[in-house]
Design a protein that fits this description.
- The chain starts with 7 loop residues before the first strand and ends with a strand.
- The radius of gyration is 13 Å and the shape is elongated.
- By secondary structure, the chain is mainly beta.
- The strands form two sheets. The protein has a four-stranded antiparallel β-sheet, with no helix packed on it.
- It contains no helices and six strands.
């Protein structure tokens, strides 16, 4: 889930596994990934995200990417 997302308009939030498969995607700032993939718990490990959003104040668009670690 995005933390401290006030002031942004989410355009796209995607999470991929290490093989590049899309495991989660949303454009709703209130949605969150439940850690599942294909109706099963996703494996522990590193996942990669891409985030595209617009600042509500300036209307400027931004693109960020990085990684997260899923630990159960």
């Amino acid at each position: 889930k995005l933390v401290n997302a006030s002031g942004i308009e989410l355009l796209l939030f995607s999470i991929y596994n290490r093989w590049g498969e899309l495991v989660y995607e949303s454009d709703n700032v209130n949605d969150s990934w439940n850690g599942n993939f294909k109706n099963k718990e996703a494996e522990n490990g590193t996942y990669f995200y891409q985030l595209k959003y617009r600042c509500k104040l300036t209307r400027e668009e931004y693109f960020k990417k990085g990684d997260i670690t899923l630990i159960r």
